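Appendix C reproduces, verbatim, an entry submitted by the partner laboratory led by Prof. M.T., so that reviewers can inspect both the input and the predicted structure.
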Amino acid sequence: MPEEKENDLISKRKKEDSVIRKVAFYSLVVNTFLVIVKLYLAWISGSLALEADAINSLIDIFASLALIAGIWLSGLKSNKFPYGLYKIENFVSILIAFLVFLTAWEILINAIYEDSTVLGFSGWVLPAVAGLASVPYLLGTYEVKIGKKYNSPGLIADGKQHKVDVLSTLVVFFALFAQYFGVPVDSIGAIIVAGFIAYSGWEILKDSMKTLLDASIDYKTRDLIKSAINSDPVVICTKELNARNSGRYIFVEAVVNMKKTDLSKAHLASERIESKIRDLVPNVERVVIHYEPKERSFIRYAVPLENRDGDISPHFGEAPYFAILDFNFRDAKLLRKEILQNPAAGLDKQKGMRSAEFLLKYKPDLVFSKQKLTGKSAEYVFESAGVLLKITDADNTSELIEKIEAEMESRKEENS
């Protein structure tokens, strides 16, 4: 990767880490506030369910501290860990999950074995508890949004846990509401809260274990990476693709079959592929492309056309159509002919360059033209992709096909 791009990437990462740490600190402050308020309300109401909810928020404080520490540690660099310490965030997420399980267990035991007789309490406790439900929801939604934006598993885990806290607080509210009217369901409410908490812990644990076990990334992202590789003009196919998460970053390794070319052009192709992958997929830490030369069984030509009848255009960028011609190496005969409409023909500017970029999607080996492209933008586009250019004096595709077949047949005889 060019040094300038690498510096930009480092600067971007630092900004992202700063945002994630800031959101984690907000979580810590909000959790501290919730614990104080819930413990006070549990004390004056005597509600076991509300006490359980307060303990849940207390665990959230430790989770927030672990999250902040994990984010800081994952950003450290060490020669002993060339792939980075990014998985520390996943370890932190697992720690959060086990703390969540512990909380659920404690609440369950208390609900089953302890006396949960609720003292008489003032009616204002109910709206106070109802008001608290919105706080973890807003915080959790914000954390998940930022976590997904910057691909932070720790922040997403913390946010999901807070969103589940909303359900537990609502259960507490309805338990208190029933208790206020003399229906003793406080222990049942505490057990339901424990169930919500345990489910939240399982979701966090499951996602983090996938990453620690080097599970592949989701199919959508994998397909996006594969399409970026296959779209390069010198790539014949992707032979093997491995992509995995490490913390909030993605590592990509691919074995690619390319057209036979020199090492410098193959290296340029790998740089193009890496750049395109980074443009399409956020948080890609490393891309390794292993290229293997491979011969195709056919050769592909492209030529600008004046019309669909096959008359060759005297212009390149202004040509309304292009013909794609595939010839078999073995018998030197036309395999396939396809006529494409040129989407760049109607542009006011950069017709040549856009036409060349359009043709590269079809991966021609050689482009014929009546117009000299020397020094023009189209020439640079084709040259960088390893595509040859050749002037033709043929008037139509039928004449051009005859000339190509005759030339290929002549080469066969010379080689035999």
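The mean pLDDT is 81. Additional entries are available on request from the coordinating office.
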